[in-house]
Write a structure and sequence with these properties.
2 copies of one chain form a homodimer. Chain A has a 4-stranded antiparallel β-sheet with strand order 1-2-4-3. In chain A, 41% of the residues lie in helices and 18% in strands. Chain A has one domain (3-154): 3-Layer(aba) Sandwich (NADH Oxidase), CATH 3.40.109. The radius of gyration of chain A is 18 Å and the shape is globular. Chain A contains 6 helices and 5 strands. Chain A is α+β, with helices and mostly antiparallel strands. The first copy, chain A, has helices at residues 3-9, 23-34, 53-61, 80-113, 126-132, 162-165; strands at 45-50, 72-79, 117-121, 139-148, 166-168. Chains A and B meet through helix 1, helix 2, strand 1, helix 4 and strand 4 of A and helix 1, helix 2, strand 1, helix 4 and strand 4 of B.
């Protein structure tokens, strides 16, 4: 799938079929995440694939944003302790979030290009997730990417038009595209 | 460009040609950013295109991470005040960063697919940037995406192999792909 098409046609999916996802697809999605940029190339991330239906169910119960049942999910974690040691506070408190988010966006695009539906989830209990997945101190679950075959194609959500959100050279100065 | 190819072959570019970028390309890059997902579809972002060479120069002077001279940059800002009003602390302190990062990643992929080079920059003085670009209180510059024609194709940076960063069902449990 062409990259602009993927970006424009990707939707957050919240209804899924139970059908399992082949490991080849999972690998491609993880690879896409792995090639996102990271500040200073620190790559302070760990990806936990969850396929065990019992654990998925436990995660869903503590994640109000996890809508629909998916055959798997990827919990994108950051190594905040390592980030702090190498890059200080900016790395720990900001780049960990920013870099894991870019990795998650790549995963969403990859899933979509493979004909799957996906949704990024932040609304979860990090304490419960850490317990269920035995995540040690210093490692933080940043985002869950839930993935499955879409059961319903979501409609195009409204977006602010570009002219409302884009300025030129200073805040508030409307951008008029040159013809 | 195919989406996996774009994701895998994108590099952070830090040497640029002075050649200007047509507004059609700028619009496509902004569109790509605008279609990133946002928590609750809040879209609490504003994109400031900077094309004025004097302002670009001022920004470079307060941004150690802004390497190379580009004919333009996009300052991805979040409306943290609005985010807080609608979505509370999680939206203001986390989703603003996560969502703007996903938009930035889309912009990086779009720029690459258009044959341009780009780099995300976080290492800048937000205080100075707010002054130069007249960014009001409540709005935060999150990331700068610097963009131009690449003058030097960067080499492939090292990445941790997937088996070192991927676990299954719990932290520390190595994932062995099914054949």
């Amino acid at each position: 799938m062409e990259v602009f098409e993927a970006i424009m046609s990707r939707r957050s999916v919240r209804k899924f079929k139970a059908e399992p996802i082949p490991d080849d697809f999972i690998e491609k999605i993880l690879e896409a995440g792995r090639w996102a940029p990271t500040g200073g190339n620190l790559q302070h991330w760990k990806f936990i694939i969850v396929k065990d239906p019992k654990i998925l169910d436990m995660i869903r119960k503590v994640s109000p944003g996890y809508l629909g049942a998916t055959p798997f999910a990827i919990v994108v974690c950051s190594d905040r302790e390592r980030a702090y040691k190498i890059g200080g506070k900016l790395a720990r408190d900001y780049l960990c979030i920013a870099d894991c988010s870019m990795a998650a966006e790549n995963m969403l695009l990859a899933a979509h290009a493979l004909g799957l539906g996906a949704c990024p989830v932040k609304s979860f209990s990090p304490v419960a997730l850490k317990e269920f997945l035995e995540i040690p101190n210093g490692i933080e679950p940043e985002l869950i990417v839930i993935i499955g075959y879409s059961d319903k194609k979501p409609s195009r959500p409204p977006r602010f038009p570009l002219e409302e959100i884009t300025y030129i050279n200073k805040y508030g100065e409307k951008w008029l595209k040159e013809k």
